[in-house]
Amino acid sequence: MRDEDLARHAFHQVGAYEGPSVSMYDQHAQGIRHRGQLDRILEENQDSQALWIVPADVHF
C-alpha cells in the first residue's frame, strides 16, 4: 500500500507518542491524575447520578 497522502506516516507518529498515561477524566475533559482529586470529585457528586464510566479502546 502506497502512502501517497502520508496518512500511514501520520498515524504511526500519533501511535508512537509516549506521554503521561491518563485513563480517567472529569466533566471538563481534564485528566484525574491523583487519588485526592478523584476523592474530591466523588464527594462532590455523592448524591448525583451524573457520574459516567465510558470504556474506550483506541488502536493506531
From TrEMBL:
Highest taxon above the source species: Archaea
Domain DUF7995: from-to ranges: 1-60
Pfam families according to UniProt: DUF7995
Protein name: DUF7995 domain-containing protein
